[in-house]
Each structure stands twice: as C-alpha cells, then as structure tokens.
C-alpha cells in the first residue's frame, strides 16, 4: 500500500467515494506496484470494512499532504455510477459504525468540523453523492447507543494479486515484488483465497517484471503466503 510513517496527531476524517462500482478495482489502485500513488485507510462496502493502510501511517487520499498527515481517509464503494454516485444504505451503516469507532478512539466529536468531504479540502467531485450530514447523524446514533450493533469487523487487505498477459504466463505481485508462477497449481491456490487476478498488456507485465525483484516462488514461499491469507 502507498503510505509513509510521517504521521501527525489525527484530528480529521475525510470521506471519499470510489467513483466506481468495483470494490476490487478500487482497492487495487492503492497497491504500490500500480504506480498510481494514492491510498486510503479504509474501504467501506455494503458487506465489508476493509482496513487498507494502517491508521499509524499516512495514506495519500486528500490531495494535500498536511491534511493526509493528520487525517483518516475512508473510501466508499458506489452503488450507482455517474453522475449520481450514490452509496448503498448498508454502506452508510458500515461507515457510521467505523466513524463512531474512530471518533471514540481518537476522542473526536462526531460533527461536521471533524468529518469532512474530500471536496472541502481540494477542488474535486469526490465524495460524489454521499450525504455527509446523514453519515454523521448515523454515526451519532451508533455512538449514543440508538443503534445497538456497534461491533466493527475489519478485514485486512493483503497487497497481493496475480497478473497474466498474452505470451507471458502468470506472475504474483506482492509488496511490489514480482514472482514468476511456474507451477500450474499455484495461481489457483491464491485465487481460492480471494487474491484478485488482473489481465494486463504484455508491456505492463514486462514493466512489473523489470522494476521489481525478479524471483521465483518455491513451495515453502507459496505455503507461507497462503497461510498469511488465511488469517
Ligand atoms: Zn476523494
């Protein structure tokens, strides 16, 4: 994940939308290896709260480094496309739980001053059609006990995906390192654990291969990586 440890005291939550309706595509954007250079701490969907960048690290979401240093960035999966860019009611509920949890831990009031939309920091269409006042209201309800279910289950995103290209075969990318997958059974082992697969152009494949440490996966490494995913 794109991040650094030059963190300041956290006193702000910044709300974003994916500008997209694919959860996998959104999270993939934040891997170092894509070279895009953005990231967020959380990705919220109707079913999941993904912990992407650790809260102790600076994520690159606000378009302003000073703000990034002191904020938590929460991304939301859209349920509709352009131009309405809505999010699902279940996503509001999950996000409200997450925000209530964050505000409790960082001792932040759940209000409009501490929870802002991306467009309040820089000129952007983000966070689309997300109603921040509604989100704050729902987070307040969680915090004051009006909503009973306050348990926040977070899943950790593993910075890992497989790639393939025409005339190139299959490789695994993890932590910016390129591994050739030579054994035909290996990719399936990873896919069975939910590791996404991306079809790329031969040129992109070659870029991944040259800019990273070229390595091969032996059985021991495969087993270790898969064991890590099962946690
Ligand atoms: Zn944004």
From TrEMBL:
Keywords noted in UniProt: Cell wall biogenesis/degradation, Hydrolase
Give the enzyme class. Answer: hydrolase
Q: Enumerate the spans annotated as N-acetylmuramoyl-L-alanine amidase domain.
A: 2-128
The catalysed reaction is: Hydrolyzes the link between N-acetylmuramoyl residues and L-amino acid residues in certain cell-wall glycopeptides
Q: What biological processes does GO assign it? A: cell wall organization; peptidoglycan catabolic process; peptidoglycan turnover
Is Cell wall biogenesis/degradation found in the keyword set? yes
- Supply the SUPFAM superfamilies for this chain: N-acetylmuramoyl-L-alanine amidase-like
- EC number(s) per UniProt? 3.5.1.28
What are this entry's molecular-function GO terms?
Answer: N-acetylmuramoyl-L-alanine amidase activity
Domain of life (superkingdom): Bacteria
A Pfam family annotated for this UniProt entry: Amidase_2
PANTHER family the UniProt entry points to: N-ACETYLMURAMOYL-L-ALANINE AMIDASE AMID
Can you name this protein?
Answer: N-acetylmuramoyl-L-alanine amidase
